[in-house]
Amino acid sequence: MTFTGKASIYGVIGHPISHSLSPVFQNSAFSYLGLEAVYIPMDIPPEKLETAFRGLKALVNMRGLNVTIPHKEDVIHLLDEVSEEARSIGAVNTIIFEGGRAKGDNTDWVGFLKALREIVEPEDKRALVLGAGGASRAVVYALKRVGAEVFIWNRTYEKARKLADEFGLKAIRDAEEAVKRMDIIVNTTSVGLKEDDPWLFDYRLIRPDHTVVDIIYRETHLVKMAKQAGASYQTGFPMLVYQGAESFRLWTGCEPPLKIMKKSLSPYGYPKDCSRIP
Ligand code: ATR
Q1: Quick one: which atom of ligand 1 is closest to the CA of 198?
Q2: Is 194 in the pocket of ligand 1 (CB under 6 A)?
Q3: Which of 72, 114, 144, 262 is flagged as catalytic?
Q4: Which of 20, 177, 181, 188 could be joined to 131 by an S-S link, Cβ 3.0–4.6 Å?
Q5: What are the tens digits of pLDDT across the range 166-197?
Q6: Contact status, residue 146 vs residue 169, Cβ threshold 8 Å
């Protein structure tokens, strides 16, 4: 793809950013639709966020950004407007620039939900969310919004209780006891990023009627054990694509080319199981 001076600029801000796969699938979508736009990774250390953000906002052809760790909360006070959803979640992952204004939104929750719907309809289901950090909030918000019965477990119980109180949900102390009563189990902790990470609960308790989601991209022990148990399962890849697809929709007004986006990630390990790629 070549660009003229009419090209629009998009990107993702974070620190570090070299692991990000968003440029892969966003650029593949732009190019597939023939949009003259480029999506670039931008590494911004926390102490430079304000300066860098003001600079980006000053660019007339800057149309949109994704925001990732560690800026999702800190960017909020730099914005002219923040959506109700982003306020409730307390994090912005998408910024839309229009008429010199910067509007913050959150597509993590809807991305999670759309990905989840590939394997289960969550309405009226009992869902256990493992973790009470930043990533947990969008998942908890999404599940509550569609009427699932949500339970939160966290290594540090106090944090689970605080999050549960904020959303009017239940915090639980014993994950193993809870797993037996659940339909959906979602890992939002960082446990599983490394091969030798501990288990969060006895994964042998997973049954074929469980739905297990790990928002980590790689196949964690949790996902492997779910697969082995014959349960429905999902890694973090679909959520990654769907949150980005929803950002794409907000920026361009175009229907995101999901199949193209997913296909562009196959060299990076996106599940190639076609029956799961609608
Ligand atoms: P993120 O924004 O990615 O959610 P975070 O806010 O630092 O990151 O949250 C990390 C989550 O992983 C927390 O729920 C954390 O549990 P604590 O609140 O008890 O720290 C969880 N976590 C990290 N390492 C863990 C471990 N070894 N066992 C269980 N939970 C762990």
Answers
A1: 27
A2: no
A3: 72
A4: 188
A5: 999 999 999 999 999 999 999 999 999 999 99
A6: no
